[in-house]
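Project outcomes to date are best conveyed with an example. Our students and postdoctoral researchers have been running inverse folding experiments weekly, and each run begins with a structure described purely in tokens. The record below, which covers 253 residues, was selected by the lab manager from last quarter's runs and is presented without edits.
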């Protein structure tokens, strides 16, 4: 099958073997795949990213000296089911998936490991236990946003934000904007978004217009002084992150 391979920061269209689903896995025909900021950074800095992931216990990550296939924000149609997969994943049904694969050697991050080629390809493997059937009528363009929107929702929930709090979202990239989208559902008192003047997010009219464009209550110049409770902020980052070993405990089906 055709795929886009990254090797020493160079992207090339190549032919790679079509994968076969193991027990509990799905083989998907890729319908849509997003280009994540992580992919853009990893293209030129994959060794630094691998070093950071290794410090967190992630093994089998890619390196600049080995070709691998990006793509972890995807929507696909079921082409083949492995043994033990639930009947709800009917052939042709569209699904999204947590980008992770498991085998006897451990856990592999889809799109960031040579052992788990991503969705910059005609087909991609997914764990059925970590996959969800796309609701009827939802476009694949929107469905492919499930992974980054889930990252944003996870960040909001980990913040333990309450109705009395004011949220400050630093950075208006895709995940930052997704956090702003989620914030009203978590009922904060306000959402402040630091916006660099001339960043492309600004328009004539001042902070009110910028905030409206970003669905926030206020847009703030990051050069302005903002008081932050650093002790509380540090506490938010101290929540335990599930290790790759813990992820092995998820049921196969």
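After processing, the design step wrote out the following sequence:
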């Amino acid at each position: 099958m055709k795929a886009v391979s990254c090797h020493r920061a160079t992207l090339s269209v190549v032919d790679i073997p079509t994968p076969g689903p193991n027990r509990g896995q799905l083989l998907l025909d890729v319908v849509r795949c997003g280009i994540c900021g992580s992919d853009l950074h990893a293209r030129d800095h994959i060794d630094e990213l691998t070093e950071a992931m290794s410090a967190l216990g992630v093994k089998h990550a890619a390196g600049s000296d080995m070709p691998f296939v990006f793509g972890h924000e995807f929507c696909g149609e079921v082409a083949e089911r492995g043994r033990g997969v639930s009947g709800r994943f009917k052939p042709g049904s569209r699904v999204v998936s947590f980008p992770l694969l498991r085998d006897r050697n451990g856990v592999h991050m889809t799109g960031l490991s040579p052992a788990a080629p991503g969705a910059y390809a005609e087909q991609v493997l997914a764990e059925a236990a970590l996959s969800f059937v796309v609701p009827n009528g939802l476009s694949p363009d929107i469905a492919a946003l499930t992974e980054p929107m889930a990252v944003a929702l996870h960040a909001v929930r980990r913040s333990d934000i309450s109705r009395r709090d004011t949220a400050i979202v630093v950075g208006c990239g895709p995940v930052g904007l997704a956090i702003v989208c989620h914030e009203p559902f978590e009922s904060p008192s306000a959402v402040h978004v630091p916006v660099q003047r001339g960043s492309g997010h600004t328009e004539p009219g001042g902070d009110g217009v910028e905030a409206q464009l970003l669905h926030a209550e206020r847009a703030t110049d990051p050069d302005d002084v903002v008081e932050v409770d650093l002790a509380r902020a540090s506490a938010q980052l101290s929540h335990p992150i599930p290790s790759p070993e813990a992820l092995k405990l998820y049921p196969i089906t």
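The CA atoms of residues 10 and 22 lie 30 Å apart. The helical segments are 37-55, 140-143, 146-158, 174-186, 207-213, 230-236, 244-247. The training component of this project remains on track.
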